[in-house]
Amino acid sequence: MARLSDAELRELKQGLVAAVVGAGVDDAALSVLIRQLTTDPDALKPVVQLSLNDPSRLAALNSTGLMAGGAGRTLDTVALLAAEALATPFVAISLLDDSTELLAGLNVDDGDCERVRSADLSIGKFTVATGIPFIVDDAKDHPLLAGHPTVLSGAVGAYAGIPIFSDDDDAVGSMCAWDTHAVNWTGGQILVLQDMADLASAKIFRRPI
């Protein structure tokens, strides 16, 4: 992969942020990104990887020991509570290092969802790379997700992810919910997901609640 200039990386990051925030915020940057993705589906990989590789972010994540230790019952309970509050079938606490995604908390049995996978297959990487919520009502129509394997397979039809931050405001993962069909996420659901992301962060970094 050719090394991109700083200007090209900035352009890609602007397009990524525009795509995550949604139409109407920066349509020009979004249009440029869509053209780039049409030519090269992996166009965003360098800017996402730059965020995933950030030393401060990785240090915060590694300090939790979760990437090495795997899932925890406490975080599964947080995911289960979130799923019940949102009335949605799937909720996970996703953590990402530079190459791997771990669903450290999950509301369904392990046999129903893969806990560990390549970061390349993660949807949560877009939340981590931008540090902002990623709310998608219909994944089939979204420029970042329409061609994603989990969307093409029908496993993900709608997605909502809220960043999980360390004590130093590094995004280490996301609190995410998804369904197999399109969903009109409500403001109340997003607020609940934000509250649960804050709870997950407190559990992960052992802060008082």
From TrEMBL:
Domain of life: Bacteria
SUPFAM superfamilies: GAF domain-like
Stretches assigned to the GAF domain: 73-202
Residue ranges crossing the lipid bilayer per the database entry: none
Pfam family, one: GAF
Family annotation (InterPro entries): GAF, GAF-like_dom_sf
Protein name per Swiss-Prot or TrEMBL: GAF domain-containing protein
UniProt organism field: Mycolicibacterium chubuense (strain NBB4) (Mycobacterium chubuense)
